[in-house]
Amino acid sequence: MPDDYFDERTVNRQLLIWAVASRRQLERWEPLVAASLRAQYGGPPFLDASIWEAETEHHFLLIAGRNLIQAIDMTPDISIEQTIRSELIEGRDLHEHWRDNLPVFLVTPRQKQPKYQSGKDFATRNPTRGPYWWLGWNNHDGPMILPNVPAHAVHELVDRVEATIVAKDPGFRRFIPPRQPSPWMGEVYGKDRWWPKPVESSA
């Protein structure tokens, strides 16, 4: 494909479609993290099938995020924090190439070293943590996509991409679906902002 195929409007389309895809995957994955957390504190059981559902939605989130970064790299208009960028790329690579990397990162203490650069960079940054956990959460940052990538950072990136593209070309607004309700209590709850909403009010 010739380089001149990707004019500004085509790049804007790619930016927006992968921003929308990333948001959609966040909206599919985060409620599963919230449901798992509720179950730990007396809420409805978190079914075994939901664990696998969380794993696959998390994997698809990394794919969407990686494609978003690829589109961001085609424009000077949008920046991304370097650690977030690096870890999303590494996380996608490590999930895609699970056959090589599961034996490295799911053995504790780590017995082997990663073969490829993405794994080496991830391991250097995270000497005691791995990429293969899809129900990560802490009360400071909320749901964690990867050890250094909170979900809210990807939401904020998606917000910036959407706002930038719509400001340049308002006609793209019609492709952005309504944002789904968050499963978290929210900023008005202060230190409890990342606590899951009760089941009856999470929809």
Keywords:
single chain; 203 residues; mainly alpha; three-stranded antiparallel beta sheet; 3 strands
Walk me through the structure.
- With 203 residues, the protein is mainly alpha-helical.
- The chain has one domain (7-177).
- It contains six helices and three strands.
- Strand 2 and strand 3 form a beta hairpin.
- Helix 3 (82-96) crosses helix 5 (117-125).
- The N and C termini lie far apart (44 Å).
Compact overview of the structure:
This protein has 203 residues and is mostly helical.
**How far is the N terminus from the C terminus?**
44 Å
What is the overall pLDDT average?
Answer: 95
Percent helix range: 40-55%
- Order of SSEs: HHHHHEEEH
List how many beta strands DSSP finds. Answer: 3
Low-confidence stretches: none
Spatial ordering of strands, largest sheet = 1-2-3
How much beta, percentage-wise? under 5%
Oligomeric assembly: single chain
Question: DSSP helix count?
Answer: 6
Shape: globular
Radius of gyration: 18 Å
Domain module tally? 1
Q: How does the helix and strand content classify structurally?
A: mainly alpha
- Biggest sheet: strands, sense, closure? 3 strands, antiparallel
